[in-house]
Structures are given as structure tokens and as C-alpha cells.
Design a protein that fits this description.
flat, about 80 residues, mainly alpha
């Protein structure tokens, strides 16, 4: 059941990547580009977590996941930043 939720999260994140990329192509706003990258990194982070559960990646997993979370939050912050 947990793996199904993880796959659903990845699929939703990839759908949000597509929607935010289409919004970027229409508007050329930098904020939508940051959102696109943030959703892409979020999907990648979840894929790393899934592969770690399967035993594919074990070394330094916590550091990788934490670093990706910081990058995602930084991109969300940049997307919301108003000058």
C-alpha cells in the first residue's frame, strides 16, 4: 500500500511539472520556472526514497534527501518572492 502512495505522489508531482511548465511557456514568468524545478526535484526526491527502500541506495541517503528538501523549499520560496 505504501508503494502505491509513493507512486501516486510521483505521478502527481510529474503532472504538476507539466502544468507549471506549460504555464511558464505561456507567461515566461520566472516564478513558474522555479515551481517547475521544485516539482521536478520533489518527484526525484521521492524516487530516491523509493529506491532506498528497495536497497538500491543506502549510503548517505539521509543527507541526499535532506539536501533535496532544502532545494525544493528554496525554489518554492523563490517562486513566491515578490520584488
Amino acid at each position: 500500500m505504501e508503494i502505491l502512495l509513493d507512486v501516486a505522489i510521483i505521478l502527481l508531482a510529474m503532472a504538476l511539472v507539466a502544468v507549471s511548465y506549460l504555464a511558464y511557456r505561456k507567461s515566461h514568468l520566472r516564478a513558474t520556472l522555479y515551481l517547475t524545478l521544485a516539482f521536478l526535484l520533489f518527484a526525484f526526491k521521492k524516487a530516491v526514497e523509493i529506491s532506498a527502500e528497495g536497497g538500491a541506495i543506502e549510503r548517505d541517503l539521509g543527507l541526499i534527501v535532506d539536501f533535496l528538501e532544502v532545494l525544493v523549499l528554496l525554489l518554492f520560496f523563490l517562486a513566491l518572492w515578490r520584488r
